[in-house]
Structures are given as structure tokens and as C-alpha cells.
Amino acid sequence: MSHTIFISIQLLVVVRIYRPIKYDTHRHSLLDRTRYTQELYLLGKNKLSELRDHIKCALDHSVSADLSHYPNESKSVKNGKELYKSGFLFINDCFYNDMRWPDCIDYSEVILNWANQPGRKLGKFTKAIMEDTYIRDLDIRLGYPYVYVHHGEHEHLFSFVDARLVSANDPQEVSNYPYERSVGIRNGKNCMICSMFVAKWITTENDRVPEDPFYFCEDCFHNFNYGKDGSKIGNFKAYKYVDNNAL
């Protein structure tokens, strides 16, 4: 017996996620302008925690440890998402904290303590639980920038760009949502040895290459930096690199 649930009358919102930028007042390059990386469709019955789970970020899949002495064990090392599970969505002066795991930290607490100091006059901020909040519960402003924070201080701007009823042209099964409708143009990093394949590794302080950091694909990384017996050649630190285009 099929258990597929189809949509009847349901609110649909469109969310755009933007690329993190490091603003520099002395540079005004086109590359510094905010560009979207994802466009997501969500139903009113989806929770904010589901929105968070569909935001792609290379940091979630990265490993911060130096793996130069044991590169073949990289898969056994916990990645960023496994180590740092906390995060919040800041929408309309409310911090929606992710508290789904026992080791989650309320990131908003230190901000609220700072904002509530006498003389700040920053307005009244509130907080709520992300996984207990539905999209339909929000009073959103279309086109207004909101922020998602994880890994302590890594920020992604996002905005709600449309809100309407589900149409016949949209996916009709509830299980299809959240749904990634499109992705923005993202420039990937190719291997700096062969220039053919996407980079999988970064080395720093490498005394055998002309640039720091230096990007390698999987094969070039092992062939250049290790002998046939697997021994390390030269001095360097190595980190797994996750290209946004591979997410």
C-alpha cells in the first residue's frame, strides 16, 4: 500500500541562500558582491531546522586537522558538522537556536547579554527553538536579509523572495520538500598540478611548491607528496578540501 502524501492547499515559500563574503572597505571587486548559491522551496509545514539542514556549506564537510601524516585515514576523522552542531537563524529580531543534540550551545546567549547592556539601545531581541518552529509561524518580509550562523561565527545571508500557494507546476508530494530549485554559479578550485580535476586537498607550508596554500586533486596529492611506500616527502601540512560545487 502506498503511503505517499500529496499536497492539497499549502503555503510555499522560496528562500535564497547567499555566498558568505569577507567585506573589505579597501576593495570593491565584483567578486565581493553578494551572490546566491541556492534557491530552496519550503512548505509552510516545514520546520526551520529543515531549512538549516538543506543549507550547503563546505565547512560542514571539512576536517580542520592536519592529515599530512595519515592521509588515508581522513574519512575516520570527524568533520565540521559532526563536531560543531550548534547554530541559529536570526529572523525578525529573534534567534532561532538549533538544540537538537545534547551538546548544542545557545549561540544567542552571549549576543543577547551584550545587546541588553545599559546604553546599547538595540531594541528587544527574543529567542526560540529552531526545531519547534514552522515556516508558517513566521511573519516574514520578502527580500529582507536574514542571517544563518554556525561554526561559531560563520555567516550566511538568506532571504525569503516569494510566498504563494503550491501550484500544479510544483512538486506535488510532501516528501519532496524542502526542495532545491536551483543553484547559483560557483567557481570551483582545480588541481594546481594537472589543472584537470577538482581539488581535494590543500597543503600549507609546503617547501616543494611555489604557492601557499596549494591545491591538489586526489591523485596528484598522493603522487607528489608521498613515496611509493607511503612516506611523506618534504615538510608540509595537509587538509581535506571540499569544493562547494561537489556538495
Question: How would you characterize the overall build of this protein?
Answer:
By secondary structure, this protein is of the alpha+beta class. It folds into two domains: 11-183, no CATH class; 201-246, no CATH class. Helices cover 12% and strands 25% of the residues. The chain contains five helices and eleven strands. An eight-stranded mixed sheet has the order 5-4-3-6-7-1-2-8. Strands 10-9-11 form a three-stranded antiparallel sheet. The longest helix is centred in the middle third of the chain and has 8 residues, at 108-115.
Describe the structure concisely for a colleague:
This protein is α+β, with helices and mostly antiparallel strands and 247 residues long. Helices cover 12% and strands 25% of the residues.
Topology (elements, then pairings):
Layout: E1 11-18, E2 36-43, H1 48-53, H2 58-61, H3 80-83, E3 87-91, E4 94-97, H4 108-115, E5 126-129, E6 146-150, E7 154-165, E8 179-183, E9 201-204, E10 214-216, H5 218-225, E11 237-240
Parallel strand pairs: 4-5
Antiparallel strand pairs: 1-2, 1-7, 2-8, 3-4, 3-6, 6-7, 9-10, 9-11
Offer a few descriptive terms:
single chain; 247 residues; 2 domains; three-stranded antiparallel β-sheet; 5 helices; 12% helix; 25% strand
How much of the polypeptide forms β-strand, as a percent range?
Answer: 25-35%
The helical percent reads: 10-25%
End-to-end separation: 34 Å
> Segments where pLDDT lies below 50 for 5+ residues?
none
Supply Rg.
22 Å
